[in-house]
Amino acid sequence: MSKILIVDDEQDITDLISYNLEREGFSTIKAFHGDKVFTIIKSQKPDLIILDLMLPGMNGLDICKGIRANPDTAHLPVIMLTAKGDEVDKVIGLEIGADDYITKPFSVKELVARVRTILRRTREKEKPSTKILFEYEGLMINYESCTVQVQGRVINLSPTELKILFFLTRNPGRVYSRNQILDHVWGDDTFITDRAVDVHIRRLRAQIEQDLENPRYVLTVRGFGYKFAQLH
User: Fold this and answer.
1) Could you say which DSSP state residue 171 is in?
2) What is 133-228's CATH number?
3) 232 residues of the chain, pLDDT tens digit each
4) Contact predicate 192/182, CB 8 Å
5) Which CATH class is domain 3-123?
6) What pTM value is reported for the model?
7) Where are the domains of the chain?
8) Ramachandran bin of 33, using left for φ above 0, alpha for ψ from -120 to 50, beta for the remaining angles
């Protein structure tokens, strides 16, 4: 049974989400204060977090940053929940490592669908391949253990960033459109727009590229999409 941590200072919202998730077979944990989140994560070890942006104590963006900065929690999926409809807030949330976002007021059915999609994505095993290791110009990937290193330094990527990197490196030199990346990484039942691809590519590059203006690994093909560099 997957365990979902719901962090929102509005108890009626938290209770509503919890009730509907538990009806669908999930186990839930509730938190109403930002300062309590890391203690709960450490003790309860949730499988996914639904995280409100505006919280007392510590806001959702800072919590998400902290989750991604800690190697023990870097791969933990985060859905950002916010009352703000500003596109800037959504983009910031994705840039700091949120896997998805949903704006209040929201459809509970849609939220549950997103939880299912992300959990399925994070647990889905990669397609069978004889290749376990990948290496190119200082970038090393172990597909089996889901570890990434650049010049010997361990890189902690979010589940979405890992999935994008795995997809592109399994097909180096091949160009994929944003919609093709969306279909592979997020699946057919996605609520995400192609804007999210750009955001996650930018965040991925920030983690693995030395020069963001001249990336050597994940390349932009203007008018088409993205590709991993052609292997020598």
Assistant:
1) S
2) 1.10.10.10
3) 899 999 999 999 999 999 999 999 999 999 999 999 999 999 999 999 999 988 999 999 999 999 988 888 888 999 998 876 666 666 777 778 888 888 888 899 999 999 998 888 777 644 445 578 999 999 999 988 889 999 999 999 988 899 999 999 988 888 898 888 888 887 655 566 778 889 999 999 999 999 999 999 999 998 889 999 988 6
4) yes
5) alpha beta
6) 0.63
7) 3-123, 133-228
8) beta
